[in-house]
């Protein structure tokens, strides 16, 4: 099945029936259009993916009376809408089943249930044994005898919950389940590191795994729901479909979001309140992400919550998405119903670009001799070698495009015997898994040989350019008697991979520590923290302490990931460190007091009065920016960084007019803190920041004051 080039997020809305004890409410209605809502909508899977997303194309809508003025009726056109009588089967057949086929075609599909607490999200996704919801029905469909008999389907499951913005593996007993980090691989795919994956061979096997895992989910009683989910749950089904000619890998993410809560109504105690605020915060970030995508913002705040990071692919990424908005009847939920429907209407404008994850299988070529063994776990199909470690027995839940299609990958978590059996199993008629691996090895070899040759050429060129002629050529070292050039290259490859892996590990660790901080800081504080690190880095770079400077510049990057000049600086210093060179930052701009002087006068002061010098040095500009922003309300008061590892962050942040701006370098007595610059006229600072120099720091999208209303129409 061809994947659509773009597909808007599909929206469904479901009004749950009144529960015993709830007062009758006539304010929310599902109005079906000409074609009955929920029974005729289909997923076209075409290039635009749009037909079904044209608001109200079916003429269906949800009408809600304004809680403040009942004479006003808001109407929300939504193609798939379900009233209180709709059955689980109806929803599944109309909106979900078509997406199962899309996933079988090698695409990632994400279905999430959204709505206020007790609106029926868990009922929709999970259901009950007597009335199963989306999840068990999807699994039934996957294991139903396929209409395409020549396909082999393998399914693996992983299951996480995001509880108070921490990720836990629900397949692992809670006492053995540490918080898991969310990471990004080389290809930019987000994944949960160290997540367990369980292969399931039948619906019954799945039920066993799923019910054990679901029992671990954080659930608690509130006044609005006796069994309220206190976490977001994401179940991922990874599909590996093998046909005679191709192997496809699709994914289905089934997301049961925690519901937004009004603490006054839920009657939450302090521990519930903490959960509640984490839930509301993550949902608010979800709203911000949707808003940013809708307004075409340059920065989408995915990183502000684990939930949005993990759902990144479903929101403006390469996944096909379905959002099921659950609505609860009743006056007390009215405002939430309006919020949910507004969210729905905004979300349906989000466009994804689904990608088909498919690999062709060709007839095997005779293999004369097995090529030298490469660690195939590190090799990504169709791309460069993946350097992200894939621990045995575990695999990532998210990420598209570069996942290796290996039975071993799917079978992670299976017993060793099962793994062995699977390894022996042919991946497709005519081509065994070992042969596929051999082919990948050869492809990697060719690529590595090419890169090594390139590197040797570069070294030779460097050597030729060296005037002393004394430097030893690594090329000469390469001539190891008894080793063929190919084997020698593999040796180099291993070293290279090792070094790269270690570097990545360091980066991940550093990234985790920093991202925790980055997550909690406001955009202004992030910029200031970034600047503080840059200033510190600059001081070390001036002292010639390049490795430390590099580390600090990288930390700065965590806070200001979009800063191009900073990235350039990092590359320059990396190069200098790697090649044992000294690094000299571009000269600082002439001081302000010199600006009024004529050229000659300035030269006499030892300052080059060249126009180019108007461009400030990176660190200067950042510091300058800070000094000029006298009306920034928040400021990094103190950055205490010990070069021996001790770190303390003064992230807070004064709201008073008297602000300190200094850095303290703990553990480095010799290091002076940059003195605070005198404040300049505000007008000038605006010029500096808003001039083309402003690309030094691309500020985070400022929170918008005005709210855009889309699709809200008076009936
Ligand atoms: N369509 C429905 N038919 C019958 N009962 C329903 C339906 N939807 C929800 N319910 C019932 O409403 C109650 C609340 O539903 P549920 O727990 O699924 O809400 P939720 O949105 O997941 O809440 P929370 O966010 O607090 O976890 C449950 O008792 C559930 O059985």
Automatic annotation (TrEMBL):
<dbReference type="InterPro" id="IPR019734">
    <property type="entry name" value="TPR_rpt"/>
</dbReference>
<feature type="coiled-coil region">
    <location>
        <begin position="487"/>
        <end position="514"/>
    </location>
</feature>
<dbReference type="GO" id="GO:0007018">
    <property type="term" value="P:microtubule-based movement"/>
</dbReference>
<dbReference type="GO" id="GO:0008017">
    <property type="term" value="F:microtubule binding"/>
</dbReference>
<feature type="repeat" description="TPR">
    <location>
        <begin position="530"/>
        <end position="563"/>
    </location>
</feature>
<feature type="binding site">
    <location>
        <begin position="115"/>
        <end position="122"/>
    </location>
    <ligand>
        <name>ATP</name>
    </ligand>
</feature>
<dbReference type="GO" id="GO:0005874">
    <property type="term" value="C:microtubule"/>
</dbReference>
<feature type="region of interest" description="Disordered">
    <location>
        <begin position="664"/>
        <end position="715"/>
    </location>
</feature>
<feature type="compositionally biased region" description="Basic residues">
    <location>
        <begin position="586"/>
        <end position="597"/>
    </location>
</feature>
<feature type="region of interest" description="Disordered">
    <location>
        <begin position="412"/>
        <end position="433"/>
    </location>
</feature>
<feature type="compositionally biased region" description="Polar residues">
    <location>
        <begin position="36"/>
        <end position="56"/>
    </location>
</feature>
<dbReference type="InterPro" id="IPR019821">
    <property type="entry name" value="Kinesin_motor_CS"/>
</dbReference>
<feature type="domain" description="Kinesin motor">
    <location>
        <begin position="8"/>
        <end position="350"/>
    </location>
</feature>
<keyword id="KW-0067">ATP-binding</keyword>
<feature type="region of interest" description="Disordered">
    <location>
        <begin position="32"/>
        <end position="56"/>
    </location>
</feature>
<keyword id="KW-0802">TPR repeat</keyword>
<feature type="region of interest" description="Disordered">
    <location>
        <begin position="461"/>
        <end position="482"/>
    </location>
</feature>
<feature type="region of interest" description="Disordered">
    <location>
        <begin position="584"/>
        <end position="640"/>
    </location>
</feature>
<keyword id="KW-0493">Microtubule</keyword>
<dbReference type="GO" id="GO:0005524">
    <property type="term" value="F:ATP binding"/>
</dbReference>
<dbReference type="Pfam" id="PF00225">
    <property type="entry name" value="Kinesin"/>
</dbReference>
<dbReference type="GO" id="GO:0007052">
    <property type="term" value="P:mitotic spindle organization"/>
</dbReference>
<feature type="compositionally biased region" description="Basic residues">
    <location>
        <begin position="704"/>
        <end position="715"/>
    </location>
</feature>
<protein>
    <recommendedName>
        <fullName>Kinesin-like protein</fullName>
    </recommendedName>
</protein>
<feature type="compositionally biased region" description="Basic and acidic residues">
    <location>
        <begin position="415"/>
        <end position="426"/>
    </location>
</feature>
<feature type="compositionally biased region" description="Low complexity">
    <location>
        <begin position="461"/>
        <end position="471"/>
    </location>
</feature>
<keyword id="KW-0175">Coiled coil</keyword>
<dbReference type="GO" id="GO:0005875">
    <property type="term" value="C:microtubule associated complex"/>
</dbReference>
<dbReference type="InterPro" id="IPR001752">
    <property type="entry name" value="Kinesin_motor_dom"/>
</dbReference>
<dbReference type="InterPro" id="IPR036961">
    <property type="entry name" value="Kinesin_motor_dom_sf"/>
</dbReference>
<feature type="compositionally biased region" description="Basic and acidic residues">
    <location>
        <begin position="619"/>
        <end position="632"/>
    </location>
</feature>
<dbReference type="InterPro" id="IPR027640">
    <property type="entry name" value="Kinesin-like_fam"/>
</dbReference>
<keyword id="KW-0547">Nucleotide-binding</keyword>
<keyword id="KW-0505">Motor protein</keyword>
<dbReference type="GO" id="GO:0051231">
    <property type="term" value="P:spindle elongation"/>
</dbReference>
<dbReference type="GO" id="GO:0003777">
    <property type="term" value="F:microtubule motor activity"/>
</dbReference>
<comment type="similarity">
    <text>Belongs to the TRAFAC class myosin-kinesin ATPase superfamily. Kinesin family.</text>
</comment>
<dbReference type="InterPro" id="IPR027417">
    <property type="entry name" value="P-loop_NTPase"/>
</dbReference>
């Amino acid at each position: 099945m061809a994947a659509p080039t773009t597909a808007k997020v599909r929206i469904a809305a479901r009004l749950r029936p009144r529960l015993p004890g709830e007062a009758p409410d006539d304010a929310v209605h599902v109005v079906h259009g000409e074609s009955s809502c929920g029974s005729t909508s289909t997923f076209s899977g075409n290039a635009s993916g749009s037909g079904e997303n044209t608001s109200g194309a079916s003429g269906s809508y949800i009408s809600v009376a304004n809680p403040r003025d009942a004479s006003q009726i808001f109407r929300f056109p939504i193609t798939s809408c379900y009233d209180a009588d709709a059955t689980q089967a109806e929803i599944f057949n109309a909106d979900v089943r078509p997406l199962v086929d899309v996933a079988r075609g090698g695409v990632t599909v994400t279905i999430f249930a959204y709505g206020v607490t007790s609106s029926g999200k868990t009922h929709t996704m999970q259901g009950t044994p007597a009335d199963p919801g989306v999840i068990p029905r999807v699994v039934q469909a996957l294991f139903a005898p396929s209409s395409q008999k020549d396909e082999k389907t393998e399914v693996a499951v992983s299951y996480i919950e995001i509880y108070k913005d921490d990720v836990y593996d629900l397949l692992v007993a809670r006492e053995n389940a540490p918080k898991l980090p969310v990471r990004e691989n080389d290809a930019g795919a987000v994944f949960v590191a160290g997540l367990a994956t369980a292969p399931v061979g039948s619906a019954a096997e799945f039920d066993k795994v799923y019910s054990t895992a679901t029992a671990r989910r954080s659930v608690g009683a509130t006044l609005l729901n006796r069994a309220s989910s206190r976490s977001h749950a994401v179940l991922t089904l990874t599909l590996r479909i093998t046909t005679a000619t191709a192997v496809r890998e699709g994914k289905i993410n089934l997301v049961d979001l925690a519901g937004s809560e009004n603490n006054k109504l839920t009657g939450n105690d302090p521990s519930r309140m903490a959960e509640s605020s984490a839930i509301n915060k993550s949902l608010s970030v979800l709203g911000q992400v949707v808003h940013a995508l809708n307004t075409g913002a340059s920065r989408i705040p995915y990183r502000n919550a684990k939930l949005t990071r993990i759902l990144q692919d479903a929101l403006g990424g390469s996944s096909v998405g379905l959002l099921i908005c659950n609505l609860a009847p009743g006056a007390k939920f009215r405002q939430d119903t309006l919020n949910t429907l507004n969210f729905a209407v905004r979300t349906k404008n989000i466009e994804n670009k689904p990608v088909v994850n498919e690999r062709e299988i060709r007839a095997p070529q005779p293999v004369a001799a097995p090529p030298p063994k490469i660690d195939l776990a590190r090799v990504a199909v169709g791309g460069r070698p993946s350097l992200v470690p894939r621990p045995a027995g575990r695999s990532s839940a998210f990420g598209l495009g570069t996942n290796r299609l290996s039975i071993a990958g799917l079978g992670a978590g299976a017993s060793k015997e099962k793994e062995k059996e699977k390894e022996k199993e042919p991946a497709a008629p005519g081509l065994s898994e070992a042969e596929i691996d051999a082919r990948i090895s050869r492809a990697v070899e060719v690529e590595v040989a090419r890169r090594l040759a390139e590197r040797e050429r570069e070294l030779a060129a460097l050597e030729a350019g060296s005037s002393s002629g004394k430097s030893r050529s690594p090329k000469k070292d390469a001539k190891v008697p008894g080793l063929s050039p190919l084997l020698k290259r593999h040796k180099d490859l291993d070293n290279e991979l090792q070094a790269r892996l270690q570097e990545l590990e360091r980066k991940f660790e550093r990234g985790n520590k920093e991202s925790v901080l980055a997550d909690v800081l406001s955009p202004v504080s992030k910029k200031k923290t970034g600047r503080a690190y840059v200033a510190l880095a600059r001081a070390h770079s001036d002292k010639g302490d390049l490795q430390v400077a590099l580390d600090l510049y990288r930390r700065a990057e965590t806070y200001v990931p979009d800063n191009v000049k900073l990235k350039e600086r990092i590359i320059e210093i990396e190069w200098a460190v790697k090649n044992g060179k000294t690094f000299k930052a571009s000269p600082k701009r002439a001081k302000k007091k010199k600006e009024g002087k004529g050229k000659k006068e300035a030269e006499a002061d030892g300052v080059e009065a060249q126009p180019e010098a108007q461009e400030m040095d990176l660190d200067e500009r950042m510091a300058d920016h800070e000094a000029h922003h006298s009306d920034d309300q928040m400021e990094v008061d103190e950055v205490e960084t010990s070069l021996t590892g001790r770190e303390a962050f003064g992230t807070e942040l004064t709201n008073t007019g008297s602000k300190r701006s200094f850095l303290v370098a703990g553990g480095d007595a010799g290091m002076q803190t940059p003195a605070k610059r005198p404040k300049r006229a505000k007008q000038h600072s605006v010029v500096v920041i808003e001039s083309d120099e402003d690309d030094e720091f691309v500020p985070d999208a400022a929170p918008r004051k005005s709210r855009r209303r889309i699709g809200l129409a008076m009936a």
